[in-house]
Amino acid sequence: MMRDFANWALETAKVRGATYADARVMDIRLRDLSTKNGQVGTLSESESYGIGIRVIAQGSWGFASTDRLTREGIAACAAHAVSIAKASASAKLRKVEMVPVAAYQDTWQNPYIKDPFQIPIERQLDLLLAADREMSRVKGVTVSETSMTLRRIEQFFASSIGSAIHQIKMQSGAGICATAFAGNEIQKRSYPNSFGGQHMLAGYELVESLDLVGNAPRVAEEAVALHSAAPSPAGPHTLILDSSQLGLQIHESIGHPIELDRVLGMEANFAGMSFLTLEKLNKLKYGSEIVNVVADARLEHGPGLGTFGYDDEGVPAQCTPIISDGLFTGYLSNRETAISIGEKTSGGTMRTESWNRLPIIRMTNISILPGTWRFDDLIADTDGGVYMETNRSWSIDDRRYQFQFSTEIAWEIKGGKKTRMLKNPSYSGITTEFWNSCDAICSREDWTLWGTPNCGKGQPMQTMGTGHGAAPARFRNIKLGAAFAKP
Amino acid sequence: MPQKVTYSGTRGFVAKKKTKPAKNAHAATPRKSGSAVAGLHLLSDAEFRRIAEKIFKLSDADETEVEIGMTSDALTRFANNTIHQNVAEQVLNVSVRTVLDGRTARATTNKTDEDSLRRVVETAKTLARSQPRNPDSLPMPGPQKYTKVARYFENTAHATPADRARAVVKVAQLAEKNKQTAAGIFATGVTQFAIANSRGLFASHRQTRAEFSITILESDSSGWAKSNSPDLAQIDPVALAKSASEKSAASRKPSEVAPGKWTVILEPSAALDLVGFLFYDFAGTAMADQRSCFNRRMGKRVMGENISLHDDAYHPLQSGAPFDGEGIPRQKILLVDKGVPTNLVYSRATAKKMKTKPTGHGLPLPNDMGEAPMNLVFTGGNSSLDEMVRSTENGILVTRVWYIRDVDPYEKLLTGMTRDGTFLVRDGKLAGGLRNFRFNQSVLEMLSNVELLGPSVRAAGEESFDMVVPSMKVRNFNFSEVTKF
């Protein structure tokens, strides 16, 4: 039926005067489980099925969506999309132009071992409750929390140039968090990452591989121990970030500024613009010579939340070099914006949250390529510094220059050894200065493809999963402690 | 940007100003053409009840709750003085919560055929059965009485893409005339939802929304303005564009001043996005979890005596439904009285646990957040923005703040950036644009340092629920760093 729905939309759009049309039929199933303090918190499933129709008419864009999946409902929606495009044309400065794309007829599905929706819910809850219990046992823990999110996205894309692409994406993710309130402080520790843990394009095998229960006691003990830890220092220091924090640093200070719609002002009112104006391409020294970053949606990069077969305007997944030996070499583009940088093809980064949202330029997997260091050797090579783990707070300006991050925990590095625990760590800086101060990146053995499931962009707001491969890395002369400084 | 965790729950759309109420806010409306979404069909209470009855017949659970939500929304987006995105959506969701022997779970679908409805009920039951019994589970509430609110406007529900495009053309022309670039949105829509349960509770709400937001850019400056209302007639896109345009022009060639402790004048949107971060601290569950910044501070003066705050879903400048996620009527609650946190809000379950009474602020069950006040109303003052500027020898006026995140949740220390209109104030006058700042500022400390308050208005930001807040003049506001623009 998905193919029929899409074809009905294209037929009506053409009859109504669209010069281009594409349609996405999506069926999304979501399961959310959480526990708190030994009790089930959220336990819900949802499904959402509908069609989004995007058209060009009179040289302008229109988009309409509906969950009324009858021939009449889809025809009305397609006609509405065309009428919206004609309204857009009344404020047109120039006709929409797009780089060409071939017509593809294909099916694609990410590999997974265990369908998470076939695993009994009791078993999933048992796992979360066991991890919750292990955290609650630790004296001083005031809140123990766990969560699991499972998602299946089936979609059919068809366009008026003849593409017909069927894709199925299975996503899994889980995490735990212990909070300890004492004195005048709230401290917390999360595993394997904050804000929901680790998420990938994978089956339930991902959840099982995380060993939530085995890590729960350590997480809880660290949350409590932070209360008696020394404060993280202030001032310029050598900083080593763990791979998850580096993943978020990439997301904020590389992933967003390279979005070409931001660069061209299309997000100026909400998400903001970018310091990476067009003349900087192939000229700006973004980072030190060891910094290499790619935007890679291909499966061979790994099963990240930014992995797919085709983007949401029918462009095949690809790898774009973003930073090559420190030089800024690429943007995230789509069929419309690729023209502005002289490209003949789209970078394939159009993605939509759901059938009722317009595809927009989104990060795929924005990853730093592994370096050569083993983590132990990196610590041993560092005379003095701070090693920070697991994001706690993040903020960056609307052109992506100035950022401030804090992490849940840090460790002092002294004489080449990881020594005492430090609390309330933070660091801040200017994007290009930061990346140019990178002098060591760990190797493939310490590289993880992290999932950020909650990237918000667009109006109406869309939430998208993005991937970020990262390994621990060292940065010199970084400003620490501004967040907690008492001027 | 990764989003912070918030909850919108049954909180609907927002209003800047309310004029005369709709006469038939809950009446069935016939199909009309040319509206926000083709074939807009608003559901009557009778139709809501019919869907709910169908679900009740399909369910043999001990108790069953149905939430039905319909959204018809459209948004015209412009940038570089032209429309570049123009979208519309229509969705109908049916959400079923079942209770079986003290176990509860929820399943939701937008597939409304008979088989799908049967399946959603079965899914909710299967999920409910899969968990241990919750000893704190409460029976569903019975029928309730509600105070009516009128937040539905026909003109807004039936606004067309052409209506929105005409406004965009006007503001784009204004920007072009001033050699500026405009970007923004113009959105209109309607949302409806109803809650019914097998104990006879039935509540429904219908609301429209109109929202216009604009950023006007020059090569080295920008200005921003935003407004929303349930009534499209209250939105003046050209006036907002003029304001943004003037700010952009006035902040050309921004200078840089050193960060540090400054006297700041926060326009309502900036004040909103900072104080809005307090909303969950007033939840009973946050207090029970020892995560509220008011933990051990209730009854103590932690803000200035000029700060008082209610949660009031019935305030004329407020929006949203008069009932919570379980269908309990929302109560007006005094949260802060002259700087002293006085009351919290409670769902039924939290109230039982904390040996108090529910206030009608529960989130849809099951959830682990409990409840939250979503209709915050600050008591304002009499000082105009002009008066605040005139009384300031050396300070900074902030139009808008951005990317705000908790740094220290107990001290309510927030970080974020200024954006789109940051001005130096010198000797009682605006003295040009400034490069934007990062701040690291405790909200509790900020609310202890408020020197002047403007009248409370319906303010719209990007980081918090829209609410009723005043502009504020605040001493010793902590800017920690400066960015490059």
Structural class of chain B: alpha+beta
Largest sheet of chain B: 6 strands, antiparallel
> What's the tally of helices of chain B?
10
Low-pLDDT segments of chain B: 5-37
Helix proportion of residues of chain B, in percent? 10-25%
Order of helices and strands of chain B: HEEEHHHEEEHEHHEEEHEHEEEEHEEEE
Concise overview:
By secondary structure, chain A is an alpha+beta fold.
Key words describing this protein structure:
heterodimer, A: about 475 residues, alpha+beta, PmbA/TldD fold, 2 domains, eight-stranded mixed beta sheet, five-stranded mixed β-barrel, 9 helices, 24 strands, globular, B: about 475 residues, six-stranded antiparallel beta sheet, five-stranded mixed beta barrel, 10 helices
Descriptive report:
The complex is a heterodimer of chains A (487) and B (485). With 487 residues, chain A is an alpha+beta fold. Chain A folds into 2 domains: 2-228, 2-Layer Sandwich (PmbA/TldD fold), CATH 3.30.2290; 230-484, no CATH class. Chain A has 9 helices and 24 strands. In chain A, strands 1, 2, 3, 4, 5, 6, 7 and 8 form an 8-stranded mixed beta sheet that branches. In chain A, strand 14 (350-351) and strand 15 form a beta hairpin. In chain A, helix 1 packs across helix 2 (71-89) and helix 3 (121-136) packs parallel to helix 5 (212-225). The longest helix of chain A is centred in the first third of the chain and has 19 residues, at 71-89. Chain A is globular. The termini of chain A are far apart. With 485 residues, chain B is of the alpha+beta class. Chain B folds into 2 domains: 45-239, PmbA/TldD fold (2-Layer Sandwich), CATH 3.30.2290; 254-485, no CATH class. Helix content of chain B is 20%, strand content 34%. Chain B has helices spanning 45-58, 114-129, 154-157, 161-177, 237-250, 268-275, 284-288, 348-353, 385-390, 443-448, and strands at 63-79, 82-100, 103-109, 181-197, 202-217, 222-229, 260-266, 309-311, 333-337, 340-341, 376-378, 394-408, 413-426, 429-433, 437-442, 450-453, 457-459, 467-469, 472-482. In chain B, the strands form 4 sheets. In chain B, strands 3-2-1-4-5-6 form a 6-stranded antiparallel beta sheet. In chain B, strands 7-12-13-15-19 form a 5-stranded mixed β-barrel. Chain B has a 4-stranded antiparallel beta sheet with strand order 10-9-8-11, with no helix packed on it. In chain B, strand 4 (181-197) and strand 5 (202-217) form a beta hairpin. Mean pLDDT of chain B is 92; it is low at 5-37. At the A-B interface, strand 1, strand 2, strand 3, helix 2 and helix 3 of A face strand 1, strand 2, strand 3, helix 2 and helix 4 of B. Strand 3 of chain A pairs parallel with strand 2 (82-100) of chain B.
